[in-house]
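Q: Here's a chain of 109 amino acids. Please give me its 3D structure as tokens.
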Amino acid sequence: MTRGTTIAVLLLAALLEAGGDAIVRAGLRSPAPFTRAVLFLAGAIVLFAYGWAVNAPGWDFGRLLGIYVVFFFLTAQLISWLVFGQPPSRAILIGGALIVAGGVVISLG
């Protein structure tokens, strides 16, 4: 797998994981039982797709964890802001900078 393909798969996995979590969260907050059930099912499917995407390739996932954690953090914050109207606080931005720095260290090390 090329480096570009690996990065694309890791980004897709992060989007699926954060997106699946957001769908489940929306289901937990839905007052309508049918809507809640549909959101739970959709969340389960998306989270399964995440698990498949991240585990299907024959790579050393531990070695790629740094970049994955960065992608997950960034997508989770973006979804939190855009979908749930919760912009990142100053502390989250500072901690996020440390996460990104750590991801760079792990990926290049």
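Q: Can you summarize the key feature?
A: The chain has four helices and no strands.
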